[in-house]
Amino acid sequence: MRRNLSFLSLACLSLCLSVPVGLAGCGAQNAAEKQVRAARVAASLSAQALWQAYAENGKAADRKFKGRVLRVTGQVANTGQTFAGNPFIMLRANDLGSGVQCFFTPEHKTQIDRLKQGQEVTIRGQCAGMPVAVELHGCLLQ
To answer: Among residues 124, 109, 123, 112, which one has the least CA distance to residue 36?
Structure first.
């Protein structure tokens, strides 16, 4: 009986912690999308050029791009969904699998599901730098 209560307590705690994280993810993308819709595009470039700028000098690329709305064109490497339920598109930047990860609100899932690997797309989004891949948030397909 004690083991079952322990398991149940852990399950409840896990659920309670995961719901706010998921909701925060969606809320952050909604806020970013509003900013992207309202802002003027600071630069238009290829996914390869954006990734290369970060690969060569991340600090200089942050000064130039981070926090700004960009229009980025590239080939779809893959699509997916975050734990929070936000769909994303990974744009191919090189042959090593690196790229630009573009995050959308859940409302765009149907539109993203129609995309094919290798298809060229143009995406507008706010640059968040390069934590692992170069990231764009609040994205819109153009």
So the answer is: 124
